[in-house]
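INFO  loader      accepted 1 record
INFO  loader      residues=144
INFO  predictor   begin
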Amino acid sequence: MADDWNPTDPGVMRFPSGVLVRGRGLRHPLPPGPAPSFAVHLLGKEPSATAWESRWVRWPDFRLPRDARQAREAFAEALARAAHERVEVACGGGRGRTGTALACMAVLDGVPAERAVEFVRRNYHPRAVETPWQRRFVLRFADA
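INFO  predictor   done
INFO  writer      dumping tokens
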């Protein structure tokens, strides 16, 4: 069984270390192809159960995670697991919270914090990381 995403599939982003992570919006249908083996759901309310293992980070829309330490742990786990599993990061629409999480994961993967939003916008979605406070969260992520 291949444990990687297809790098050309929608929402799949390659980090500098080479790992692939899929970002998506949960309000959209599940994309065709293999299911994730692990997901981080970034939602204000507890998500529905999935057929794969998942972790919930309480994160209201257009805001920041309720617990920054828990978010950091979830991002680190997702990045580590992406080396051997299909990992997905998802919020409602797939841009703001998902983009912010992917930018934080990029920082963990070695991208300088001041370039992480640009990195995600170039490699995932041009409008990822939607609010000024989400951009500040990424900038301060390396120091947290």
